[in-house]
Amino acid sequence: MVGLDTFKPIDAQDPLQHHMHTEYYRVPIETWDACRHVHESGGSVVAVGTTATRALESAAATGERSGRTSLYITPGFSWQVVDKMMTNFHMPRTTLIMMISSMIGERWRALYGHAIDRRYRMLSFGDAMLLDRHAR
Questions:
Q1: What is the tens place of the pLDDT at every residue in 57-97?
Q2: What is the pLDDT of residue 92?
Q3: CA nearest neighbour of 112 among 124, 134, 94, 97
Q4: What residue ranges define each of the domains in the chain, with the CATH number in brackets?
Q5: N or C: more exposed end of the chain, with fewer CB within 10 A?
Q6: CA 6, CA 10: separation in Å to the nearest integer?
Q7: How far is CA 127 from CA 22, 54, 121, 124, in A?
Q8: Which residues contact 101 (CB under 8 A, 6 or more apart)?
């Protein structure tokens, strides 16, 4: 479930000091088992959206498939479940940009530069991108 603070700009001078909101998440057992099976067979788990990504990684981090999470995915995060993420283009200085940066590193800047140059639509009803944390 998306919390309103998902879209709140980071107001801390150091983005890593930002206080992350909590939101409820639930990962059905069928989804959890499917993710495990995909990894065991050498495939990639693709999450559609930052909320789904945060839910899956929260379940991995806590061992609980449901609850409230304050997981803040920033550069250096140890990814356990999600290999690829489909998401739209987000606003600067948000936790969502931090998550994207964690997944693909500084490559996000070139992607956003491309999107801005070509006038892609941003935000929730805009264009989307598929990010692969294993691609270099």
A1: 999 999 999 999 999 999 999 999 999 999 999 888 889 99
A2: 82
A3: 97
A4: 20-132 (3.40.1780.10)
A5: C
A6: 10
A7: 27, 21, 5, 8
A8: 74, 75, 108
